[in-house]
# Entry
Amino acid sequence: MELDQSIIGLTGPVFTFEVDKRHIRQFAQAIGDDNPLYTDEEYAAKTPYGGIIAPPTFPIVIGSEGEGISLDLDPKRMLHGEQEFLYTRPIKPGDRLVCQMKVTDLFEREGKSGKMQFLVLDTEIKDESGEMVVVSRMNIIYRSIQQHV
Amino acid sequence: MLNFVDLYEGKELEPLVKPAVTKVQLVKYAGASGDFNPLHTDDEFAQSIGMPGVIAHGMLVMGFLGEYVNRLAGETAELTNFRMRFGAITRPGDQISCSGKITSLYEEEGQQFARLELSAEKAPGKVVGSGQASLRFF
# Structure
């Protein structure tokens, strides 16, 4: 079954994500990123950020936290092709983020082995007053049925 | 750290070579990111779906590029946009090199920006992730 345009605009449930210092530290450590901006309060306070921030790919954690959107998708056909982050400001410890996933686009392209569909899923991450913090955009390739063995 | 005045289009930036990826690192990344797909942590499972063994999370590779770009930005600039297309798989033992180049410099509403092209490779020409970033100078 192919996806159709009617899914554009579908949204998942709104959820809240609380950012804590330990989580930021563990995320940076897993990457092996020892930039003191993510762990050292004293250092970070003297930078233009004014305090600890999260590494740039941290919003991916938030995307995996929500329940997502219940689309009738075959996970075997899905391929995470591209990831993008559109930042308004960095995430900081203590942030209570209000998040929601949305289907923002669906388009087709002719690939080497037939038609492929591309699905764009945005997780909008805002602060409690509704100001945008970052958008985490997943570009998913939805392979056609015949090319998948 | 980048200084806007020293930059020009086409400038190659000093690369970052990461230590080889380890299985323990993949376990740590699974825990920290919440992505517990056993493809990244369980060799038996990975082999059952035709992989030689566990492979790294694609987002770990983007994490390496994120480390690289924020090192470059230092205290002079901040990221406004960052994207990466996933390439070849990364396995434990692979050593990833991050490299970058300035593709454009511009001003918008009185603020200075640089656009960078980024690449993560496990060997020369073997791209595991290719991306772009925009930096706004403070």
